[in-house]
Design brief:
376 residues, conserved putative lor/sdh protein from methanococcus maripaludis s2 fold, Elongation Factor Tu (Ef-tu), domain 3, 4 domains, nine-stranded antiparallel sheet, five-stranded mixed sheet
Length: 376
């Protein structure tokens, strides 16, 4: 068998050498070249047919697997995020109008009090002694005046005596009223219903108008104050929606702008806004920090996740969508215009339709024209 194979190879070699020797002219070589090219073209066509058949029969290994997401048509809101501070109108430090020694403390810290209730008594001994002396003098002056008035009505005595008695009586009455007013000011009285947050002096201490005696609060109604940059003057108005988040107490409140300042602070180019808050449970305290969100844009339209938006070499924003063609899922590149972005979502003003289907997971590994497999 080996000898037969050897003889066959030798014969083939000799024949080919003879043919090579014969075909040495240019025309013969060109003819042979044309024949080979035709064979190559025919083989390429057959190879293409086989590859197409293979791609149709074996697509699972070739296609990218992606997930899809419909375009959301909804109300889009954009907020300005700043920080504010809680304040209260009824949060005051009560101070005496006159200095004096504390002779009585009638309340405790944390106690609820009513308007007009006496909280602290200061020493008013000197004033009360003066009032007692004036009261005695006033009683005598009234008796004298009454007698002079009866005599004057009977046309007895002089008019000057009558007027002097009247003037003395009225002067003592005014002095006594003045002392009563001073005595009242020696009492620290609650101007409104509230809670005693802190009592500063101790029994027997000396107070003065420069030092506070009681901190009184009423937290049923508080407000948040914040500085907003002047850029937002055209969109921030009284009645604008505002969301308040208090991280320290894990509480959120939805309210509206109650007041807008008319003064631009030259130091930070901002104006003040105020948001009133109902606080019946008293959980929101003065000076508590609040994360404030003020609505500056609202519109109905198409909304998509911001993570799906990509940027090409020309700086254009685009997304990939999927379209059904010849029973295959084809990736389409669409340029989009973005109006606003907030909370990981973007508002699309141009470039998409509400019926479009977005490539979600896998959007970064596909390109326009790709055929993909959708994983539900």
């Amino acid at each position: 068998m080996k000898n037969i194979v050897f003889l066959f190879i030798t014969a083939t070699f000799l024949i080919s050498c003879r043919e090579e020797h014969k075909k040495t002219s240019i025309s013969d070589l060109n003819s042979e070249k044309a024949t080979l090219i035709n064979h190559i073209d025919s083989l390429n066509k057959q190879l293409k047919i086989v590859e197409d058949k293979l791609s149709k029969l074996d697509t699972i290994k070739k296609l990218h697997i992606v997930t899809v997401l419909p375009v959301k048509n909804d109300l889009f809101k954009h907020y300005v995020e700043i920080q504010g501070v809680v304040k209260a109108d009824k949060n005051i430090d009560l101070r005496p109008e006159f200095g004096g020694t504390v002779t009585a403390i009638y309340v405790k810290e944390g106690q609820r009090v009513a308007a007009g209730q006496i909280l602290i008594q200061l020493d008013d001994t000197a004033i009360r002694n003066s009032m007692a002396e004036l009261t005695t003098q006033l009683n005598l002056a009234k008796t004298t005046f009454d007698r002079q008035e009866r005599l004057w009505n009977q046309k007895i005595g002089s008019e000057m005596q009558y007027l002097q008695a009247k003037a003395q009586k009225e002067g003592l009455e005014n002095n006594l009223a003045s002392l009563k007013t001073q005595a009242k000011k020696m009492k620290i009285i609650a101007p409104f219903n509230g809670i005693v947050d802190e009592v500063f002096p101790r029994f027997g201490e000396l107070t003065s108008p420069q030092t506070p005696t009681v901190r009184l609060l009423n937290l049923n109604n508080v407000y948040v104050e914040a500085d907003v940059t002047e850029t937002y003057l055209p969109v921030v108005q009284v009645g604008t929606e505002a969301k308040l988040n208090f991280p320290s107490i894990s509480k959120e409140v939805v309210s509206k702008i109650s007041q807008i300042g008319n003064y631009i602070n030259p130091d930070n180019r901002s104006f003040k806004v105020r948001i009133n808050i109902s606080n019946k449970d008293n959980t929101i305290k003065p000076n508590l920090l609040a994360d404030l969100k003020i609505l500056d844009f609202k519109s109905e339209g198409l909304i998509i996740p911001s993570t799906l938006v990509q940027k090409d070499l020309k700086g254009n924003n685009y997304v990939f969508t999927v379209k059904k063609e010849n029973n295959e899922n084809v990736v389409i590149k669409k340029l989009v215009s973005i109006s606003k972005e907030y909370n990981n979502e973007v508002f699309i003003s141009e470039g998409l339709e509400s019926t479009d289907t977005l490539v979600n997971k896998g959007a970064r590994i596909v390109k326009a024209g790709d055929i993909v497999k959708i994983n539900n």
